[in-house]
Write a structure and sequence with these properties.
Structural class: alpha/beta
Number of helices: 4
CATH architecture: 3-Layer(aba) Sandwich
Oligomer: single chain
Largest sheet: 7 strands, mixed
Helix content: 10-25%
Number of strands: 11
Order of helices and strands: HEEEHEEEHEEHEEE
Number of domains: 1
Shape: globular
Strand content: 25-35%
Distance between the termini: 41 Å
Amino acid sequence: MLTPFHNRPELGTLYEPLVGKTMLELGGKQDGGRVYKPYFESFGFKHTSVDWNGEFGALVMDLRKPLNLGTFDMVTNIGTSEHVSEKDYAGQIACWRNILAAMHVGTVLICDTPKPGYWKGHGTWYPQMTFYSELARLNGLKVERLLENDWRPDKPGRPVISARLVMRESMPFVMPDRQHLFCST
């Protein structure tokens, strides 16, 4: 099966190594016509995706409301969280609370979000590099990888912040200070 990361190999490496057998994907993701869900299912993952529009096999769910889907071995946020709740910060808190609620000790969290200031009109809330470090520190996660790169090397100028974190300790959710999120409005 062809990889959905054909034009973004650095994103594909963020997933390596794959962990466990269950995955929660925020947003029904596809890239260049290749949907993520069947790709990960081909590796034996029980793959659940959630999105408000239900596209590409996603369950229709609002990330501002509790998901109550249990925990997963891998959780992914590839360009989704910046679109949650354009009107208020409370939506961001709810989204990130849902992300952490879907994790157990050993869960890997993969995030790839636009770098603040470069993706005009794409979303509202953009995590800065410090957001991921603070999210880890406050919530029992370990940062395995944290880097900035171009979204697509063949179309430079749209940098993203990529992170791979692992849940090391189960703790009550704490949202990093708002200063670690850039609001474009």
